[in-house]
Every structure is written in C-alpha cells, then in structure tokens.
Design goal:
This protein is of the alpha+beta class. It has one domain: Creatine Kinase, Chain A, domain 2. It starts with 6 loop residues before the first helix and ends with a helix. InterPro entries: Gln_synth/guanido_kin_cat_dom, Gln_synth_cat_dom, Gln_synth_gly_rich_site, Glutamine_Synthetase. Belongs to the glutamine synthetase family.
Length: 273
C-alpha cells in the first residue's frame, strides 16, 4: 500500500487507464517561484523593510534595477537540461524577485515527475547561492502578483481538427468540478485567487479567450485554428503536479456529468456543446 503522501500512485492509475492512454494527454506547466533574502525573508532585490517601485517594468525585464536573480534562473535552466528534464523556457515575473520556468510538453505522468525533480534542483541551486526559495502562492500581501503554476493541457482529440468542441466540453466538465479542483490545487490559494492580479475569484468558475482573469483561458490561436489546448490558471505555485495533472485527465476524459447538470452549466457558461 502506498503511504498517504504518495500522490504518484493514484496518478499512475489514472494515466494507466486505456481511455487516458489513447488520448495521449500533454501538459505544459508554468512553475512560478519567489526568491527571498535569507535573513529577513524579504524578496530578492527589494530594499529591506521597504518596497520597490510598483509592478510594471519587471516582467521579462533586463537590467540590474529591474531583474533580480537571473543567475539563479539561468543556472537552474542549465542544470535541468543536464539532468534530462524537459524544461522549455524561463522568464522574470511581474513581481520583482519572482521567476518562472516552463516544463513540457510532457505526456502523462512524466509531467509530475519532471516538475518534482526540477523543484529539487532549484532548491539545491538556491542553497548554493545563499538565497531562500519559496513556493508560497502569495508571498507578499497587497498590490503584488501571487505565484501560480498554470497548467496547459490538451488531449489527442483536442489537438485534431474539430478539437475546439472537445475543449469546450472539457471546460464544461471542469466547471462542474470546480470545488474539487480548487481543494486540490494548493494550500493558501485563497490568498492568491482574488479576482485581481491576473487571477479569477476562487469561488467562481469562468473561462475566456485570451483572458488572464479567467479560471481557464483559451488562446486566440486555438480559437482561430479550431483545435489546440486550454490553460488552467487556478493551480497555486505549491500545488502537487501529480494531483493536478491526473485530476485534469480524470475530469476531462473519464468523468461524465449528468445530462441535466451539463445542460445547466453549458447555459451558464454560454458553451454550445
């Protein structure tokens, strides 16, 4: 029997289901994190006991007055490549001292494996640099962005011609299990999902095309091409990737709502499926 903290076991069961295997689920995970000064636990680059200038110039920025911790981000990227992790990019985030890296596209349970290993490598890199790593979803209260772990997801059917209808059906299913997903998407996420700072309100499910303020976002290219992927923007930076990825697969491939619930949700979300 697996121990209670072993979430990989249940994920492996879901990803081992024939229906899931046949759909070849792809994941691209955007892991955000915040770097802290070790003695004061205050973001890297921030004046101790004070605040930097407001958000705006820091996202994907260059320059010693706007980008803090690039050496750590770059070292982590190279270490992940060397380790065989499917890392595909990095960028500075909206809040200064906050960074992101992307892992994927990965198939099935590999997404969770690679995120967990990449987090361990990041802990080691920050340790060597004398910097504290936090995956807290809202490390600084107030008018500052939180840290998430946006999860981009598609199935074989979604990627094929006509897949947009399957994406809308998946969104409908996700709306009906919103509470189950939120409860599994990371501790302290209620401090992040406020409806501000590019997040949706934690109590309400929403979706939209090219809308960063929704629970689930669909890209313009996906809408235009009629196939592609969806982005679940709800997971917190400290989420368990085994839980999140397997729950997405379960809800969109294996779980079937009642016809009545499906019709009501479709009407509410203006989804014609």
């Amino acid at each position: 029997e697996p121990i209670p903290t072993n979430k990989r076991h249940r994920a492996a069961e879901i990803f081992g289901n024939k229906k899931v295997i046949d759909e070849v689920p792809w994941f691209g995970i955007e892991q955000e994190y915040t770097l802290l000064q070790p003695n004061v636990k205050w973001p890297l680059g921030w004046p101790v006991g004070a605040y930097p200038g407001p958000q705006g110039p820091y996202y994907c920025a260059a320059g010693a007055d706007k980008s803090f911790g690039r050496d750590i981000s770059d070292a982590h990227y190279k270490a992940c490549l060397y380790a065989g992790i499917n890392i595909s990019g990095t960028n500075g985030e909206v809040m200064p001292g906050q960074w992101e890296y992307q892992v994927g596209p990965s198939v099935g349970i590999e997404a969770g494996d690679h995120i967990w290993c990449s987090r361990y490598i990041l802990e080691r890199i920050t340790e060597q640099a004398g910097v504290v790593l936090t995956l807290d979803p809202k490390p600084i209260e107030g008018d500052w962005n939180g840290a998430g772990c946006h999860t981009n997801y598609s199935t074989k059917s979604m990627r094929e011609d006509g897949g947009y209808e399957l994406i809308k059906k998946a969104i409908l299913n996700l709306s009906l299990r919103h509470k189950e997903h939120i409860s599994a998407y990371g501790e302290g996420n209620e401090r992040r999902l406020t409806g501000k700072h590019e997040t949706a309100n934690i109590n309400t499910f929403s979706w939209g095309v090219a809308n960063r303020g929704c629970s689930v976002r669909v890209g313009r290219d996906t809408e235009k091409q009629g196939k592609g992927y969806l982005e679940d923007r709800r997971p917190a930076s400290n989420m368990d990737p085994y839980i999140v990825t397997s729950l997405l697969a379960e809800t969109t491939i294996l779980w079937e709502p009642t016809l009545e619930a499906e019709a009501l949700a479709a009407q509410k979300l203006a989804l014609k499926v």
